[in-house]
Amino acid sequence: xAVDTNEILEEIRGQLEAIKVVGGREATPESTWTELDVDSLxxxxxxxxxxxxxxxxxxxxxxxxxxxxGDAIGLTVRLVEAKEGAPA
Amino acid sequence: MPPPEGGVALxxxxxxxxxxxxTERLKADGFTTVMLGRTSGDVQADxxxxxxxxxxxxxxxxxxxxxxxxxxNAGERQDNIAIxxxxxxxxxxxxxxxxxxxxxxRRALDDMLKARWGRIVNISSVVAxxxxxxxxxxxxxxxxxxxxxRTIARExxxxxxxxxxxxxxxxxxxxxxxxxxxxxAGIPAGRIGRPEEIAHAVSFFCSEEAGYVNGAxxxxxxxxxx
Lengths: 88, 226
Known about the structure:
- Chain A is 61% helix and 0% strand.
- Chain A has 88 residues and is mostly helical.
- The two termini of chain A are 15 Å apart.
- In chain A, 22% of the residues are buried.
- Chain B has a single domain, classed as 3-Layer(aba) Sandwich (Rossmann fold), CATH 3.40.50.
- The longest helix of chain B has 29 residues.
- In chain B, strands 3-2-1-4-5-6-7 form a 7-stranded parallel beta sheet, with helices on both faces.
- The model of chain B has no long low-confidence stretch (mean pLDDT 93).
- Chain B is built from 6 helices and 7 strands.
- Chains A and B meet through helix 3 of A and helix 3 of B.
């Protein structure tokens, strides 16, 4: 079953809020980490939460081009779909 | 006060000496304790080996829960004056004492970051501050632990994770029986310390009330380095 991008957006907003990112609750797919003032440690924390929530593994290589909330949503969708498409 | 959500306190090298006293004290404070040793304790690992630490932490999480308190106490001594110290003696002590603290810290931070709560206590040594001939490797490793402590503290402070260090003086353990008598004359307190006195300091750093104490080094040495 395809993962809902709105649900991932809500998950990211919730995590950003928990990390105490100012404006995290109102983040949109267009919001960049620079705009949100999300640093590398915040990003690690967000990634760990997404890994736990969607049972995926996000490698450092995957993370390099991720510069916005929308990028993170796209990566999560791709990894969830790859996991579901993988042989058991 | 125990950490939130069923987290455990992991003590490396916790089977004897200072480690055993720390384990007993944290248990009395209400923590679920796990002792990690090379061949003894609840879980086994060579702390200087990153892969071994990864496997051990996986086992700890599976059997006991996430590590929200870490006491880096595992250490070894291979004393020799520098001119006679072999590369193997140097590397082995750096590998275990400093590498071990780093590998365990790096892995424990995964659990602490998720819990948004963590306490790390590094057991350094008075020789990090006051050099002791014959311990170039041990002193360098223990001094390195102080820098590691301050770096982790600065990186993690805003995540409600603290990292502090203790520099014990000469403490009555298996590792110090050969040097204690020689050194006691140089200890202003006029006696060597007890493992329980180190454990008490660890207990303080692990408490909820010490949440604003971060990056500190506490000498528990009878004024030896003062």
